[in-house]
């Protein structure tokens, strides 16, 4: 018997009410984010802030932003509705608190902060101020992930046995590159490993236990971490298996295997993709090709946040703040087990 997969319920990003955005940082991800907003939403990026005036002006000219400012305080003080924090992980806490204190909603690049303690500060400040704070884990808001969400809710896979996800990239050994720099909260886990950890949380919930192994890079940050997560309240026999490295390009795939069927997401699983569900009887079904591809999919998270603001909601139902905190707690524990702490941390 053939079967079909559900259609995504993800709204068209163009339907989200337009807000005025300010951007902190001028790195690669900030550029992709602004491009995605301009191409697929009605959101308006009106100001960008950089540590140096020249970089800010160059970024604004390249991306059609009307104003650039030196420093981040001027962005928080500007006439904007939302501040997008795209600075290194080491700056996320301070930058987010700056924007929240100015009464702005914030979208904070993943990883949300360096650790759970910093993340808790940001969450408590946002809740006290009555503003939206949301982790920019763009995967959660993509159409194919809504198909996964429905497949899990409908029980099409049966009892979940194994969830697997990996994310590895190769980077040249440059001590000044942010992923090798402890001062910028570098390492594989916070930048790359957050994707498989978040995927495991999405599929299984928060783990009760974890066993991790890892190695360090030449600067002392985590080079590779692999882990088995267990003790899930809703899936007591399931294992979540994650792997991340900054020293090799891995397939970056993911799967969820149950006793009735297996759901597969090819690499990169964290970007817009098709999914395939394969049943034990050999039948398979594949979702539709995404209409918005690659990093242009960053538009969905921005549209979701804009909708939250327009509807007067203060937290996302697709990625609640308590789940962001749980993901940070898991990453803290994995780094603790492999003996990697960032400057000033005591994990």
Structure description:
- The chain is of the alpha/beta class.
- It has helices spanning 28-40, 53-63, 73-77, 89-101, 116-129, 143-153, 188-204, 299-310, 321-337; strands spanning 20-24, 44-50, 68-70, 82-85, 105-109, 133-136, 160-168, 209-216, 222-230, 239-245, 254-258, 261-265, 276-279, 284-286.
- It has an eight-stranded mixed beta sheet, with helices on one face. Strands 3-2-1-4-5-6 form a six-stranded parallel beta sheet, sandwiched between helices.
- It is globular, with a radius of gyration of 20 Å.
- The mean pLDDT is 97.
The structural class is alpha/beta
Q: How would you spell out the order of helices and strands?
A: EHEHEHEHEHEHEHEEEEEEEHH
The tally of helices reads 9
Which parts are unreliable, with pLDDT below 50 for 5 consecutive residues or more?
Answer: none
Return Rg in Å: 20 Å
Task: Give the strand line-up of the largest sheet.
Answer: 8-9-10-7-11-12-13-14
Beta-strand percent range? 15-25%
What profile does the largest beta sheet have? 8 strands, mixed
Distance between the termini: 52 Å
Average of per-residue pLDDT values: 97
Oligomer: single chain
């Amino acid at each position: 018997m053939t079967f079909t997969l559900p259609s995504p319920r993800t709204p068209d990003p163009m339907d989200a009410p337009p807000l005025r955005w300010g951007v902190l940082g001028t790195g690669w991800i900030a550029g992709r984010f602004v491009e995605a907003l301009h191409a697929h939403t009605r959101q308006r990026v009106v100001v960008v802030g950089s540590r140096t005036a020249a970089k800010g002006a160059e970024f604004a000219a390249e991306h059609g932003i009307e104003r650039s400012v030196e420093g981040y305080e001027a962005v928080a003080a500007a006439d904007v509705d939302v501040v997008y924090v795209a600075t290194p992980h080491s700056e996320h806490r301070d930058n987010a608190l700056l924007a929240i204190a100015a009464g702005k909603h914030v979208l904070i690049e993943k990883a949300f902060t360096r650790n759970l303690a910093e993340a808790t500060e940001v969450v408590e400040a946002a809740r006290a101020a009555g503003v939206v704070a949301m982790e920019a884990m763009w995967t959660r808001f993509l159409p194919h992930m809504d198909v996964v969400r429905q497949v899990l809710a409908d029980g099409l896979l049966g009892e979940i046995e194994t969830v697997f996800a990996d994310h590895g990239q190769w980077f040249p050994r440059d001590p000044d590159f942010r992923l090798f720099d402890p001062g910028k909260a570098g390492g594989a886990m916070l930048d790359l490993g957050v994707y498989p950890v978040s995927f495991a949380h999405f599929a299984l919930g928060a783990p009760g236990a974890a066993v991790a192994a890892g190695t360090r890079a030449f600067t002392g940050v985590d080079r590779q971490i692999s882990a088995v997560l267990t003790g899930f309240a809703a899936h007591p026999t399931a294992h979540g298996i994650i792997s991340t490295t900054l020293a090799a390009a891995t397939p970056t795939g993911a799967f969820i295997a149950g006793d009735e069927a297996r759901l597969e997401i090819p690499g990169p699983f964290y970007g817009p993709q098709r999914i395939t569900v394969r049943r034990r009887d050999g039948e398979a079904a594949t979702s539709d090709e995404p209409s918005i591809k690659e990093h242009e999919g960053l538009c969905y998270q921005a549209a979701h946040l804009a909708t939250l603001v327009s509807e007067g909601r203060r937290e996302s139902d697709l990625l609640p703040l308590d789940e962001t905190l749980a993901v940070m707690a898991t990453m803290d524990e994995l780094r603790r087990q492999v003996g990697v702490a960032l400057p000033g941390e005591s994990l």
